[in-house]
Amino acid sequence: MKKRSIILIGIAIAIVVGLIVYRVISNKEKEEKQSGPGGPRAASKVYGKVIQGQPFSDFLSLSGSIEADEQIEIHSEISGLVESINFSEGGRVGQGQTLLKINDAELQAQLAQAQTRNNLAGENERRAKLLLEKEAISQEEYDIASADFRTAQSQIQLIRAQLSKTIIKAPFSGTIGLRNISKGSYITPTTNVAQLVNTNRVKISFSIPEKYANKVRVNNQIKFSVQGVEGEFTAKIYATEPSVELNTRTLLVKAVTPNPNAKLMPGTFANIIFPLETVEDGLLVPAEALIPIQNGKKIFVMRNGKAKEVMVETGARTDEDVLITSGLVAGDTVLTSGVMSLRDGAAVKVTLR
Fold this sequence. Notes:
353 residues, alpha+beta, conserved putative lor/sdh protein from methanococcus maripaludis s2 fold, Elongation Factor Tu (Ef-tu), domain 3, Helix Hairpins, 4-stranded antiparallel beta sheet, 3 helices, 19 strands, 40% strand
């Protein structure tokens, strides 16, 4: 019985060893079929693209905001009751148009009183002058009468200036907003009557990083788009701050553009394309060809039928391509698919796109 068990165990071991040997031999035969006897592995099938120099415009993508060309809060310079309102909310007003009138009854009474005093002071000054010519009074007495007359005249000018402030006019043409007062309201200089904005043209305000500040030029053009508004717009830079903002390390820039159809609304965000420079012979490669590594980025190119690993430096990018600033030359065949599994020196069969 014991002898029989030993024989069975021996047979089982022989079967296991046989299976292992068979597996090793079959794998070896499979590799030989793929690469040929003593030859290299079969060439990997990949896609590639021949890189040629082409014009490329480098740019920055920035965020900004739309501002009205002119925008103010309308306030009264004096306190009083609103006698009349001469504008419609949300309507257009012209420069110099009367917007509202404040009751001036008290000031009119003060003006009448001042005019009476002025007439009396003027008569006194005339009489004093005649008496001075006859040497009936001293020069000092005449000077007092003359000063009273000039004071009365100044009082009239002061009251008339106050009266002019009872009529509030539009300082420029534009669209007036919602009013915060009604007829009969008592307003003070702190009361915000309404907003007045001029949107015949709008300003685009944005900040640019300090490393690009020296590329900003007055009269240079930018492009921008606004969410919810179809199309792309252009604007011209007209001014910048004279220094970089210390906290953000950015330079504030403002551009202006016409807005004849009032499509652009102040306060909305703008997506800005700020042009930097144009490269005449830029080498653009598909973004999928780039392989990020610890020390930078690499690309595989085909050299003599083999994949060659090349370290590259990149610049700006578009939605699909990346600008290569060093590492490639025009005419290189860049491998664009299957690159993650490639090794330096591996044989490749390239299909050009």
